[in-house]
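Researcher: I'd like a structural prediction for the single chain below. Treat it as a standalone chain; there are no partners to consider.
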Amino acid sequence: MPCVGAARSSPRGGGPSAARRGGARLVAALLVAAGCGRIEGTHDRAPRKGTGRLVAGAASVEIAPVPGYPMGGHALESRVGLGTWTPLFARALYVEDASGEPLVMVVVDLWAVSAGLADEVAERLREDADLVHVGRENLLLSATHTHHGPGNFASNRVYNQHASNLPGFDPILFDYVADRIVEAVTAAAATAEPARIVKHSGRLGGIARNRSFEAFARNPEAAGLLDENAMLPPCREEAPGPPEACRAVDPTARVLVVESTERKVPLAVVAQFSMHPTAMPNHTEIYHGDVFGMAADRLERRWRKDQPAVSPTVLLVNGPEGDVSPNWTVQGPGETRRLAEELADGLADVVEGPEEGEVTGPFVPHHTVVRLAGRVVETDAGILRTARRPLAGRSQVVGAEDGPTVFRNLGWHEGMALPEGHEAMPGHGRKLPVVWAPLTQVALPPGAVPETVPLTLVEAAGMTFATLPGEFTTILGRRIRREVQRRTGTPALLLGLGGEYLGYFTTPEAYDAQHYEGASMMYGRDAGHVVLHDVVARLDEARGRAERPHGRFSYAPGRIRRFGLHVDRVARRLLDGVEDRARTQLEAPDLPSATFTVIPPAWPAVPDAGRALPRIELVDDAGRVVDAPHDAHACVVTQAAEDGWSYTCFLVDAAYEGYRLRLRTPEAGERCSTPIRAGQAVRTGPC
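Model: Treating it as a single chain, here is the predicted structure.
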C-alpha cells in the first residue's frame, strides 16, 4: 500500500465533527498497517470583514494522551509516561483587529512543535465556518518545552527517531494533538469580545542561570550583559556553574494583559520568559508541565481567587532559552515548586506594575519558509555560509553542563573540537562529528532533517511578534530582538520553539566553543545568523504589507509506530514497581494512596472534550472541589488488564490531608476515596 496523507484536506465550511475526526483516525490506522506516513494539505484562507474594533478571547484544553507514550526532550534518557502529575494544556489566545485580521497565539505543554503540526492546525481551523479567515501566517504556535509530555508526533524523521527513548511516528497522537489545539483556538474565538492589550515588563532575578557560561563568555556582548545584570542576585554556591551564571541571562519578563473593555476584567495574560522549564530529572515517568505548567496554574488560581467570576488564561511563552536552565540546586519536585512559585510571584508583580503602552492593530502578518541547508548570504558584516548537510557534533551526545549523559563515562566532554584549520564538513567549522563524517549520511539520510524552517512575524502597533524555530541562545536572541526593534521601532516578543524545531541556534562565537548547544546546531557555524538575516529581510522586503503562504505542504515523518499502553508483556514490565518509583520521583514516600479500578480508556476516540486521562480532583466531605494546585496530587497506572485499569493516586502535598480524592472518567463516572490521612488506610468506592 503506498504512503498516503496522515492529515488530508477536507471540504471547507461547517465545524469539525466526530465523523471528521473518525475519518482522520481511520486514515491513521491504515498508516499504522502500511508502516509509512505523510502529512500534507494546502495553505488557504478567505478574508472577512472585521467588526471595526479589536476583539479577543482565550481558552485552554488538556492535551495529555493516555499513558504509554515515550516523553520527548531527553532523547535516549527519556522515560515512558505512566501517569499524570499536572495536566498538559493547549492555551490559546484569539485576537482580531478592527479590519478582521486575526492573530492566533497558542502555547502547548509539549517539548516542541513541528512545522507539519502548525500547518495542519491552520488547515483544520479553516474547517470551521467562523475561522476560514485564519491562515498559517496568522498562527503563532509554540511549545513551553516541558520534557515530560509525549514525543513521537513530529513532522520529520530525525526527531521522531531521536527526541525520545523510542523511535517512530504515531499518527493517532499527531491527530489527537492537532484536534486539541484546534479545539482550544475554536473555544477562544467563540468567546471573543471587545478588548485592549496592555504591555508590562519587569526583571526577574534568581530564577534562571546560564548553563553554558564558558561559551556565553566568548560573545563580545557578554561583559556588557553581566554589567547590566550586576544588581541581580548571584547563583547559590551549591548550584551548578559559577555564581555569575545567574547574571548571564535575559531576566526580562515581557507581559501582555488582554482585558475586556466592557467588563473590565482580564481575559488572558501572555508572559514571555526565557528558560528551559526542566527542573525535574529525566528519569521521571509521569506527564507534567514542569516549572512553566506549575507557574501558569498558580497565576490562574491566584486571579481566580481574587475575582471568582474571572478565570484568565495564562499563556507562559518561552523565548531564547537555548543556554538557560532553571536555577535549581538539585532537580526534583521541591525545587520545581519553589521556582514555579518564584516565577508566578514575579510575573504577578509585573502585571501589577505600571502600564507601558498598548498593542493595537492593524496586524500585518509575514510568513515564509527559508532554506538553511547550503546557503550563501552576503551581509554588511561579511559572507555567511551554512553547511549543505546536517551534522551532529560529539559534544551534543554528552549533554549540557548540568545535564550530562552516560557518554561522559567514556571520557567525552563538552568542548571537543577539531584542531584549528580543520573542518569536519564544509560549513561546520571545527565541529568534531559523533562518528566519521561520511557515516552521517547513513545516520541522517537525505530528508531526515528539515532543510527549511518557517518564520512567522506579525507586526502591530506597539509590538512585533516573531517565532524562533528552535532553541536560540541568550545573545543570539538579543541580537535578533535588537534588529527587529531597530527596523520596526517597536519591541519584539520572540516565541522560542515556535512553528518548527530544528535543534539549537547559537552565535558564531559561542559555536566555536563546541559546547552542547553549538555541537547541536545542525547546519553549522553561521546558521543562527542566517536566521537573523532572514528575519530582518522579511521585515525589510515586506514592510507594511502581509506575506501569505500559498500552495501545498507535505512532510514525511518517518516510519509509523503505535504507542500507548497495551495489555501485554511490555506493559507488565513497565508497570512493575511503578508506584514506588513514582513516590520516589515525586518525593512522596510516606503519604497514603487510593487505588481506583476503572474501564480502560477508549483511546483515541475519547469523549469528554478529548480528555484521555481521568480527571483527578480533591474534594471535601460535601463533594465540593478544593481549589488546590494541580501538583498537589498525582496518579499512575499500576495495572492494565482487559477488564479494567488500576490507577493509584496519592497526595504529593501533605497540606491537603483530610480531603478526598475523586476520580472521574468518561467511561465509568465517579469514584471517591475516604479522607486521606497519614497512617490510615484509604478505601475507594462510589461517591
